[in-house]
Design a protein that fits this description.
heterodimer; A: about 550 residues; alpha/beta; six-stranded mixed β-sheet; five-stranded parallel β-sheet; about 35% helix; globular; B: about 200 residues; two-stranded antiparallel ribbon
Chain lengths: ~550, ~200
C-alpha cells in the first residue's frame, strides 16, 4: 500500500511517474522503427469500400439505407444491436459519399477474422459530406451528453476488443470510478498506430481523454505509455502542460518496456497496484480503461462532430517497401493498402492482423479494415519464421517464469493433453490472456497458446451441452408432472360424480372468414387428409420404384 | 511407587483407552453410514448428469433418469446412442469400469439433429405432440404443427407416429437448413427501407 500512496502523492498534472514492475513478460525485438519513419498518411479514396455492419457474435442489424441509394459522408448506414450483455446499438457511418451497390458477406480483419455482412459502397470521389455540427463549448457538456455523442458516433474500443465505448461508460455509472487509464502502451512488436497518433496528435488525444474522464466522472485520469516511446512521451508531456480546453488533471505514467504490459488487468496492476479479481470487470474495482485511439475518436466526435469513419492502422512487414501508418477509411481492403505500400509480390507473404504474437493470420488479402484493425503485417520469411518442429516438453520452466498472470503453462499443457477439465479450470486456464509469451520462450517450440485456446473452446462447448441437458431434463420433468396432474384430475372428477363428465357443448362453429370461405368445413378437411395420404402413398411407391430401378439400371439415374 | 500406580493409575488408563476406542468406533460407523448414503445419491445424480437428457428411450427405459437408476443398480452403461463415446467414457470414469463400445442393439451415434416439420404437408393430427417428451412441438387439432427448434432434443420420437411422414431430422450441416441464418453474423432487418 505504501507504494500506492507514494504514487498517489507524486501524481499531479503533467508530472511523469514511473510505474511498478510486474511479474513475467518478455522483451522481443520491437521492429517499430520501420513504420515510424514517416508521418501518418491519409489514403486516397478507394473505388469501393466494403463497410462491415455485421455483429460478429450474433445480433440484429437494422439497415438504414437501401441498395442503390446515394449516401453522403458521415451518413448513418446501419445500426447493430449486439447480443452481448449490456450492449446497446453501434452505428456504422458512410466514410465517403457514393452509392450503396449491394449487401454482401466479406471477411473482416478484426481479431475474429470472420465473414460478416457488409455494405458495398461504390465511391464517387466527390467526398460530399453531411454538415456536421462542431461543439463550440465542450467544457459545459455533462456526462450523459458526452456518452450520447459517443454512442451516435459509433465509437467502439479501438484497441482490439471492440466493446462499444458508450456502454463501457454507461456501466461506470453504476460503480464509482476512481481512475480512468488511457492505454497507450502498445507493447506488441510492429504496431505503432497509437504511438504515431500521440506523436502527431497528442493535444486532441489529451482532450479526448479529458472528455472521457468527464463522461465517467473519474477522479483521476492517467496516460500509461511505455518507456521506449520517447517522442510520444515528449509530445504527451507538452500537450499535458499546455492549457487544454477542459479543466482537468491528466497524468502521465511511464510503464517499463516489456510484452505484454498493455493487457488490461496487467496494466491496471502496474499503474494502480489493484489486482482485478478473476472473472470480474475492472469497473467493479473502480478502474476504467480505454485505448488512446478511442480517446482521439471521442475528441473528433465531441469537438468536431465527426463520427468514427476512419482509424490509424500500421502497415508493415518485410515485403512492403514503405511501411507506414495510414489514416484508413473503414471498409478499405487490405490489398489496397498493401499496394499503396509497394508490396513485393515476387516474395510470398503471410498477412497478419494485429501483432506477430497475438495476431491472426488472414488467409486471403481481400479482408476489410474495421474500427479495431490496428495493424496489418505482410510478413516475409524473416518476420515470422515458419514454426519449427515441436518437441517434447523438457520441464525447463521458462514458460512459468514469463507468464504474466503467473500460471503454470507446462502443467496446463499436460492437463490439456489428458483432457483433464477440472484440473485445467482449477489451474486457472480461463485467466490465461493468450499473450503468447510462453510460446516465445519455449525451447521445444510447443504451440502452447493454441492448445489452451482449443481447451477453452472444448470446455465452453461442453458447458453449453451440460446446460442444454439440464434444460431438457427440466422440460421432461415438467411434462411428466403435467401428465400426472391431468390424469389425477380426471380420476378425481370421475369418482366425484358417477355420472360421466357432462359432454362438452357442441363446438362453436368458428366465425366464417371475411372472404366467405368456411375455415373448418368437414368435407374440405377430409379431402385434404385424403390428398395427403395419397401423396404419401405416391411418394412411397416412387421410392420403392426408384430403388428397384437403381438396382436394375443405375445409369438411368438422373443424378 | 509400583503399588501406587497399580492402585489407581492402571484402571484409569485402561478405562480411558477403552473410552477412546469406543468413541473412535462410533465415529467410524457414523461416517461409514453417512458416506454410504452420500455416495449412493451422488452416484445417481452423477450418472444422470453424464447422460445427454434427450429422453429418447433408445436404451429401453422411459427417460434418462430411469436409465441412470438402472445403471446405478448394475445395468450396462453402453446403451445410450445419442451420448456416443463421450457419455460412455464419462460413465466408465464414474463407475470405475473399462470403456466399452456402444451396444449396437440400441442404435448408432449420429450428429445432433432437430426435427423439422414440412408445414404445408402437416394435417394437424397432434400425434407428434403427444409423442414429444419435452413439449417442443406447438400446434392444435387440425391446425399446422411446428417444432420449436431451440427446445428439440433430437430424440426422433415424433417421426414414427406421423401418419403423413412430414417430419425430417435435420442436422446443422444439412444444406438448406437454417437458410435465413446463413450469415453467422446475424439477422438483417430492413427498417422501413424501400428498395
Amino acid at each position: 500500500m505504501s507504494a500506492l500512496n507514494w504514487i498517489s502523492s507524486k501524481l499531479f498534472a503533467g508530472d511523469t511517474v514511473y510505474a511498478r514492475h510486474t511479474y513475467g513478460g518478455i522483451r522481443p525485438q520491437s521492429f517499430k522503427q520501420h513504420s515510424l519513419r514517416s508521418r501518418i498518411m491519409s489514403t486516397p479514396i478507394p473505388a469501393q469500400l466494403t463497410i462491415p455492419v455485421g455483429a460478429a457474435d450474433g445480433g440484429t442489424i437494422t439497415q438504414l439505407v437501401a441498395v442503390g441509394e446515394q449516401v453522403l459522408k458521415y451518413q448513418k448506414l446501419a445500426s447493430i444491436q449486439l447480443n452481448r450483455d449490456g450492449c446497446s446499438e453501434v452505428f456504422a457511418h458512410a466514410p465517403t459519399s457514393g452509392v450503396i451497390a449491394e449487401i454482401k458477406s466479406a471477411r473482416v480483419a478484426d481479431h475474429r477474422i470472420q465473414q460478416q455482412l457488409c455494405l458495398l459502397l461504390t465511391t464517387d470521389g466527390h467526398d460530399d459530406a453531411l454538415v456536421v455540427e462542431p461543439s463550440y463549448d465542450p467544457v459545459n457538456l455533462n456526462s450523459a451528453e458526452i456518452v450520447d455523442i459517443i454512442r451516435e458516433a459509433g465509437i467502439i474500443g479501438m484497441g482490439g476488443a471492440g466493446f462499444p465505448s458508450a456502454d463501457k461508460l454507461d456501466s461506470a455509472f453504476n460503480s464509482a470510478i476512481d481512475i480512468l487509464i488511457i492505454n497507450a502502451t502498445e507493447c506488441e512488436p510492429y504496431i505503432t498506430a497509437d504511438e504515431s497518433l500521440i506523436r502527431e496528435r497528442a493535444k486532441k488525444t489529451v482532450l479526448g481523454a479529458e472528455l472521457l474522464q468527464r463522461a465517467c466522472s473519474a477522479t483521476r485520469c492517467v496516460f500509461a505509455i511505455e518507456e521506449s516511446k520517447r517522442d510520444a512521451i515528449e509530445a504527451l508531456t507538452k500537450a499535458l502542460q499546455a492549457d487544454t480546453e477542459v479543466a482537468s488533471s491528466c497524468e502521465l505514467v511511464i510503464i517499463p518496456t516489456k510484452y505484454p504490459a498493455g493487457s488490461e488487468n496487467l496494466l491496471i496492476h502496474c499503474v494502480t497496484g489493484i489486482e482485478v479479481p478473476s472473472g470480474e470487470y475492472p469497473a467493479q474495482s473502480g478502474v476504467l480503461m480505454l485505448n488512446s485511439g478511442t480517446a482521439y475518436a471521442v475528441c473528433e466526435a465531441v469537438v468536431q462532430g465527426k463520427p468514427c469513419i476512419s482509424r490509424i492502422t500500421t502497415l508493415c512487414g518485410e515485403t512492403l517497401q514503405t511501411p507506414k501508418n495510414f489514416e484508413v477509411l473503414i471498409g478499405t481492403s487490405a490489398n489496397f493498402l498493401f499496394d499503396l505500400c509497394g508490396i513485393d509480390n515476387s516474395v510470398a507473404h503471410r498477412s497478419i492482423v494485429g501483432g506477430p504474437l497475438m495476431g491472426r493470420e488472414l488467409n486471403a488479402d481481400d479482408a476489410v479494415i474495421y474500427k479495431t484493425t490496428n495493424c496489418l503485417i505482410a510478413a516475409g520469411p524473416a518476420d515470422i519464421p515458419m514454426p519449427a518442429e515441436e518437441r517434447a516438453c523438457i520441464r525447463c520452466g521458462f514458460c512459468a517464469d514469463v507468464c504474466p498472470v503467473r500460471l503454470l503453462p507446462q502443467q496446463l499443457l499436460a492437463f490439456s493433453k489428458s483432457s483433464d477439465t477440472d484440473a485445467l479450470v482449477e489451474h486457472g486456464l480461463f485467466d490465461c490472456i493468450e499473450c503468447g509469451a510462453c510460446d516465445y520462450v519455449c525451447p521445444s517450440h510447443i504451440a502452447l497458446v493454441s492448445t489452451y485456446k482449443d481447451s477453452k473452446a472444448c470446455i465452453e462447448a461442453r458447458q453449453q451441452e451440460v446446460d442444454r441437458s439440464a434444460y431438457w431434463q427440466q422440460r421432461f420433468q415438467y411434462r411428466q408432472y403435467r401428465l400426472k396432474k391431468d390424469k389425477d384430475q380426471s380420476l378425481a372428477r370421475k369418482s366425484a360424480n358417477k355420472t360421466p363428465a357432462p359432454k362438452l357443448e357442441k363446438k362453436a362453429t368458428p366465425a366464417p372468414l371475411p372472404n366467405g370461405q368456411d375455415f373448418f368445413s368437414k368435407e374440405k378437411a377430409s379431402a385434404e387428409i385424403a390428398a395427403a395420404v395419397a401423396r404419401v402413398k405416391a411418394r412411397r411407391e416412387a421410392k420403392t420404384r426408384v430403388n428397384g430401378e437403381s438396382h436394375a439400371a443405375p445409369k438411368d439415374d438422373p443424378k | 511407587m509400583l503399588p501406587l500406580i497399580s492402585h489407581w493409575l492402571i484402571p484409569l488408563l485402561f478405562s480411558l483407552s477403552l473410552l477412546t476406542v469406543i468413541v473412535l468406533l462410533l465415529l467410524k460407523i457414523g461416517h461409514h453410514f453417512q458416506a454410504q448414503g452420500k455416495s449412493q445419491s451422488s452416484l445417481l445424480s452423477q450418472i444422470n448428469r453424464a447422460l445427454p437428457q434427450t429422453q429418447c428411450g433408445q436404451c429401453g427405459h422411459p427417460g434418462c433418469l430411469p436409465y441412470a437408476r438402472a445403471i446405478s443398480l448394475g445395468e450396462a452403461s453402453n446403451k445410450c446412442p445419442p451420448g456416443g463415446k463421450q457419455t460412455i467414457v464419462e460413465l466408465a470414469k464414474i463407475l470405475h469400469e473399462p470403456v466399452r463400445d456402444l451396444d449396437p442393439a440400441h442404435g448408432e451415434f449420429r450428429d445432433f439433429s432437430v426435427a423439422v416439420i414440412r408445414e404445408d404437408e402437416c394435417i394437424g393430427c397432434t400425434k407428434c405432440i403427444q409423442a414429444c417428451p419435452v413439449d417442443a412441438i406447438l400446434g392444435g387439432p387440425k391446425l399446422m404443427h411446428t417444432v420449436i427448434e431451440s427446445e428439440c432434443t433430437g430424440c426422433d420420437l415424433c417421426v414414427e407416429p406421423c401418419p403423413v411422414d412430414c417430419i425430417d431430422m435435420l442436422s446443422s450441416s444439412d444444406s438448406g437448413f437454417l437458410a435465413d441464418t446463413a450469415f453467422s453474423s446475424g439477422n438483417l432487418i430492413s427498417a422501413g427501407v424501400q428498395p
